[in-house]
Design brief:
By secondary structure, the chain is α+β, with helices and mostly antiparallel strands. It is built from 10 helices and 7 strands. The chain folds into 3 domains: 158 residues, no CATH class; 41 residues; 134 residues, 2-Layer Sandwich (Heat Shock Protein 90). 15% of the residues are buried.
Length: 344
């Protein structure tokens, strides 16, 4: 939040400095020698106001509403319309200032001539400043795309390195399964569940999105393994609303929070529990919650060691920018994660 505020302040001051330098350039270099200096200051400031008004109108309305959506005709008409309106208003202001401030009682200037002069100046500078802005944004976007492509390539290489030899791994699991005594069904079932989870990670998660039913099945398998591995007094509740179906989501998005809950769940409290819930509150909003009790002496261990949570935060920023709300509540005895994702 502090970084975002600093960036916003920097941008504001950068805009103020740019307009100030442009104003000084108009006053000193483009000064009309036939006018007094005080009148020049006023005239150029009026131009500055209407040119800046057109620029910000195009920046925050015309460009995102029309240009980025490839509505080029509407974009052109909107830019021209803003320039015409600004020129008309500037003409009215110039006539008023001339007849009531600079030359009271004098001859009223020709409206058409003042309007044409205003139109040419406002149109020229508005188009030039907009063109410079678009060129800078194009360069920034290209750099951003290059960074994303490099990051994607690095992630793909890291993933390939991690897949040392899945066929060897599954063959080993099958061999271990065959050597487990048939009188030990718990161990055999755990190994089968683990094998199924591993197959899901290696072969089905190499996509941008996956069916929510498969993700839920994976979460249930993980939940089942953890219940067997943990202490008997651990209470685990997992609930999935019947509305959670028929859509895709980024794979392995919730499991980081679930792993964290089981890792730091308490073992000596009056009630040691992990609660997991998945719901669909609206048509395109998925709500996920995981809650766990924790030891009093855990302190900030969850925050300090929660590398998985850091990775999930980063994935959320990349996959659902501006379309997710993550809230983490870390109290003395409990830890709770609430996540809402807008799918489209």
């Amino acid at each position: 939040m502090q970084a975002a505020g600093s960036i916003a302040k920097y941008r504001i001051w950068a805009h103020i400095a740019t307009w100030t330098l442009l104003y000084l350039f108009w006053v000193t270099v483009l000064q009309n020698r036939s006018l007094t200096f005080s009148r020049t200051l006023t005239v150029q400031f009026c131009y500055l106001a209407f040119i800046a008004g057109n620029y910000y109108f195009d920046l925050y309305f015309t460009i995102p509403r029309f240009l980025y959506r490839r509505k080029y005709v509407l974009f052109g008409l909107s830019v021209i319309g803003g320039i015409l309106i600004g020129s008309f208003l500037r003409t009215l202001l110039a006539l008023y200032m001339t007849t009531h401030v600079f030359q009271p009682g004098g001859r009223t200037p020709d409206f058409q001539a003042v309007f044409l002069n205003s139109l040419l100046n406002i149109a020229f500078w508005t188009i030039v400043i907009l063109a410079v802005h678009l060129v800078i944004e194009k360069i920034r976007f290209r750099k951003y795309i290059d960074t994303i492509e490099k990051e994607k390539t690095k992630n793909e290489l890291d993933f390939l390195k991690a897949q040392f030899n899945p066929h060897f791994l599954f063959n080993s699991i099958n061999s271990i399964y065959g050597h487990i005594d048939k009188t030990n069904p718990t161990a055999r079932n755990m190994l089968l569940t683990f094998s199924e989870m591993l197959r899901y990670q290696l072969y089905e998660c190499n996509v941008d999105s996956i069916g929510i039913d498969k993700e839920i099945h994976y979460m249930r398998n993980y939940d089942a393994l953890q219940q067997i591995r943990k202490e008997e007094d651990l209470v685990v509740r997992m609930s999935v609303s019947k509305e959670v179906k028929g859509f895709n989501i980024a794979p392995l998005l919730f499991i980081g929070f679930i792993e964290n809950a089981f890792k730091y769940v308490s073992t000596a409290a009056d009630e040691n529990k992990v609660e997991i819930s998945l719901d669909k509150k609206e048509e395109n909003v998925v709500s996920f919650r995981v809650f766990n009790t924790k030891e009093r002496n855990t302190g900030n261990a969850i925050k300090d060691r929660g590398i998985g949570i850091v990775n999930v935060r980063r994935r959320l920023e990349l996959l659902y920018p501006g379309r997710h709300d993550l809230t983490i509540t870390d109290s003395e005895r409990t830890y709770e994660v609430n996540l809402e994702i807008q799918l489209t």
